[in-house]
Request: fold
Amino acid sequence: MIAGFAFFHLLTLGQVPQVGTLEGWYVDPAFYHYRFGKFDYTMFPGLVEYQNGSFGQGNLRFWLQSCSFKLLGFGLVQARLPMLLGGLLATYFVFLTSRTLFGVSAGLFSALFFIAAPVFYNAHESDAHSWVAASFILAAYFFLRLLSERRPAFAGLAGFTVGISVSFHLVGSLGVIPLTLVLFYYRLKRELNTLQVSYYLLGGLISFAIWYLLTVYPVGIDAFVKKSAYGIGVSKSGYAGNRWVDYFLRSGRGVIVEFPLLLIVLASYKYWGQEIQAQFFYLFFVGLFITYTLFVGSASPIPVWACLFVLMSGLTVKFLDLAHRRGRLFLSRAWVGMLVFIFVYFFSVQVKRAHEAFWKKPGDHYREMTAEIAKHIPEGKTIIGSPLYWFGFVQRNPYITQNFYWERMDAQTHELGSFDQQPAPVRARRMMAFLNRRNVAYLIADEYFQQALRPWISEDEWSKVFTVLGEFQSPIYGAPSGGGRPPYQVQVWRMKEGTM
Reply:
C-alpha cells in the first residue's frame, strides 16, 4: 500500500497542487543555474538581495532541481520531482526510525500514515521542506544509533545530517536547536561523553562549511548581510503559533482529526520515561514543535508530522500491548477504531486529490492559460507580471516579476521615489521610465498586478499608455474581487509607441 501511495504521488505530481504564485520564485535560481551555472534570479534583474538565491532558500535544493533539468529537461514536473524524492526518502527514514524504536510493524504503520497524510502534499511543491524533514528524521536515527551503540561516528553523522538541512532551507536551523539541546542534556546526565559531543559538533561544522561555500562565499559577506536584513524583515511578521493557526484553521484541514492527534502525542511523555531512545525522540519532537511554534511564519510543518507518526506508531504498540495484558479489549478496539477513522479521513483526502488531478487537471489548465496569454506576446520581448506565469514564459521571453520588484529595486537605485510625495503625472513618468530602462514591452495584468500599479499610474491613465491585446478568464484561480475565489481575469497589455 505504501508503494501504491508513492506511485499515486508520482502520477499526480504535475497536476496537484495547482501552480502557485510563489512556485516560479522557488524554482528560478535552479533554472538560472541550469542555464548559466549560477544561483541567480531571472525575474529580479539587478536586485542585489536576490543574487545567489534568496534569503533562506537553500542552494543545495536549487542544485538538485538544476540536476533534474539537466537530466530530464525543464518543466514543472522536473522542478517538483526532487522534492517528491525528498518526501519519499523521509518516508523511508520514518519507517527506519520507527522500526529501530518499536519494531517492523510500527515502522510500516508510521510510514503508511505519513505518506497518506494531507501534509505529505508539501512534497509536491517546489520548496525544500520535504528534504528538511528527511534530514531531521535521519539525524534522529543516527542519534538513536549513538545512544544504543555509543560509537562517536554516529554523533558526527547526526550533527552533519541535521546541519545539512540548513543548506536546503534556513528553517533547518529549527531542527539544529532542539537536537543540540538534547545532546547537551544527555551530556549533563552523563549518557554521552565529551568525545561523542565533539564528533557531533565536528559534523555540524562540516555542514556549516558546505552552507557557507554554497550561500555566503559566492556573493561575499556584505551582499549576504544586506540580503539577510531584508529576508529577516520579511520573515519576522506574524506571531508565535501563527503556523499552527494557518495549518489547522485557515487551510481547511481536518481539525477534528489532526489536532487531537497532535495533542495525544504531545501529552504522551509518561510512556517514554523509562526508555532512553524513545525518550530522546519524544524530547526531539517536542523541541521541534516549540521551535516551529515560536519562529516559523509560513514554513511547512512536514518535519514535525514526520516525527509525530513515529511516536504515534510507538503509542499504538504500547497501548495495544497494555490493553491486551490487562484484558481491556474495548480499549484496544477503541484505539484501533480511532486509527481507522484517521486513515479513512486521510484516504478521503487522497480521493479528493485524485478527482482534482484526473478530472479538473489544474496542471493542464495552467499550461493552456499561459499558452493563451503567449499568443499575444512575441517571443523574445520582455514581460513584467506575476511570478505565477513564470513557468510558461521563462524559456521564450525575458520575464520580470512585479512582486516587490520595483519597491526593492527603488530602495537600491532610488529611481522612483516615494509615490505619496509626488504628483500623479510625476509618478507615472517615473514608472514608465523604470519599465523602459528594463526594455519592458508587455505586461500580464491580472487583478493583483493592477492593484500594485495603481499607486504609480492611475487607472484613468492606463488607456493612454497601454493597449489591451487580449483577456483570459481562469476558472480555477481566485482574484481579490471574488474574495480569492474564481473566476480570475487576466489581461495582456502592450506599452504604446511613444511611451517606450
